[in-house]
């Protein structure tokens, strides 16, 4: 008994559970929620990457010829090989996710799960290798590029480059990154491919209101069955014949969202997992309009299976893992191609901004519940191990035949559920291990069961927008671009890049104009300008400032431009001895009404 208690006490101390105000049950529940919201990656990633054909080629064709491996081929031998690749990629996805989550949990002690990136797997398939290997880089060479990228990631982490770059990130951008990821999460949860289907593709406006029943959909883009043995299946791009928001699956997903919100508003712990399980169990009942399984199931774009096929797979319950086709398929000889290095560089910079931005934003999200978790230097506990975990995950993923591994924004659902330590990541690791053997069950969780969780957590992550200084256009525009670009380009990396570049341009222009203005005022004796709650205050030439204390200055009202004096009322909280003057406060922690100028007010005046 003593040894058991001692063991749990040591575990609690190792994971810093007392200081992070959590307990084992909460961590296990949070890890389960995180896994459930990202379990879709198990089958989706395998479906996407298998379209490359993997290592399959002419020798696998039943009737060898130059056309037997082309997209849309009906060659039995080649398609049989691709089907085996798809099954191996399920195993590869799980193994790489499991290893990365374990390292993050034990080393990084963060409630963050990792898995192959949804954006990079599409880039890997459609831009690098190509469908059935029709791209400029072979499947094996692309995996080799990813393998090298993983080692570069580790070097950048160990040398502190990633941490230093995050430390240089302005507070405005770090706040907007979290909000942008929240909006991105909600956008994913609203779509049909990975959510409840409220948002659908539109050829004219790009997006439109969805929720259209399958029998009222007229597909505008056909998605073929990757095996080539079945007619074209539906995609998420369709024209709806006047029945928008009539889909039973959409309304079942909305019901799950309502359940989560109501339970959360009442302080119920486990509200997210209850909502997911509620929708899942109803969707598993065959024979009704919202079924995920069975012949009457509506087809959901992006999954690549009919309801009957999903039911057949679900009934298997157990699957034997294998990596016979995709394991250790590296080809260093292919790196002689320039296209291979171009792919490596692209993987590196996109993955760098994507993973680093997500990791820091998730740590920041933990900090909303644990003040001080991320200090003023943007450093959080064990960050070196956390930064190394995705690099090791990338290496393992390449050896398993899959695209780069990254931190998942779905981790925010577990953090909202109470996850504060690496035990949450270890619980996700445990469920991935179970999925290794019970993939048919866990891969059958419908997207409209996990979509509501993404929407809810996305809404909660938007809290950071209130901390952004929207009155300062030099900060507001970069923050807005960071938030908007993420969902609109479907990329966290592009949002971070847009924010950083626009911030640098804005600050550079401000610096140049400030210097020019200072020289102009010094030469002509013009008025000085500062800012009070978004309004310019113009001081007469020769205005004198006297220090009131460490955070405030006093300026004579006569020195304020008469034309603007009315917009600058005298604060009521001034001491008697300075009632004839205006106080200009430095900072934002003093009581209102106060006159808050820009951060560098004391230096500029």
TrEMBL record:
Region (Disordered): 585-605
Top-level lineage group: Eukaryota
Gene Ontology biological process terms from the UniProt entry: adenine transport; guanine transport
Lipid bilayer topology: Multi-pass membrane protein
A GO MF term: purine nucleobase transmembrane transporter activity
InterPro entries tied to this protein: Azg-like, NCS2
Keyword Lyase: no
Family: Belongs to the nucleobase:cation symporter-2 (NCS2) (TC 2.A.40) family. Azg-like subfamily.
Protein name: Xanthine/uracil permease
Species this protein is from: Apatococcus fuscideae
